[in-house]
Design a protein that fits this description.
The chain has 114 residues and is mainly alpha-helical. The chain is built from 5 helices and no strands. The chain folds into 2 domains: 1-78, Helix Hairpins (Orthogonal Bundle), CATH 1.10.287; 80-114, no CATH class. α2 (22-44) packs antiparallel against α3. The two termini are 20 Å apart. The structure holds magnesium ion (MG). Residues 32, 35, 61, 64 line the site of magnesium ion.
Length: 114
């Protein structure tokens, strides 16, 4: 099953808004970034590998980062989907990129469904 940013944000809004503050969510985000750093250190050999499945663990920690990032947007009433689209549009102009996310999505969904 696929999840959109809007769906995830709405779900996390229900889960956290009025119950958990952004400071707590941010502390969790930083914690998850530390856990991700630990996995990347194990992958690169800077830290001893204890036999855990690093690929699975990396995916889990990145999912945690997305969870708390989107949660902070949700409790602040930010439209993260809209912001991501706008930022990419501005970046593609600023850096004179041929590609932009809006065109990519149009082609991607065209290829998927048409
Ligand atoms: Mg974690």
């Amino acid at each position: 099953m696929q999840v959109t940013i809007n769906e995830l944000e709405s779900y996390l809004d229900n889960l956290y808004s009025g119950k958990v503050g952004e400071q707590s969510l941010f502390m969790k985000l930083v914690e998850e970034m530390g856990e991700t750093a630990e996995i990347l250190n194990k992958k690169s050999g800077r830290k001893a590998d204890d036999g855990t499945d690093l690929q699975t663990e990396l995916g889990n920690e990145l999912a945690d980062i997305i969870h708390y990032t989107v949660a902070i947007a949700a409790v602040n009433g930010l439209d993260l989907n809209e912001i991501i689209m706008e930022k990419d549009k501005k970046a593609s102009i600023k850096y004179k990129r041929e590609e932009n996310l809006e065109a990519f999505i149009s082609e991607f969904s065209g290829g998927q469904h048409g």
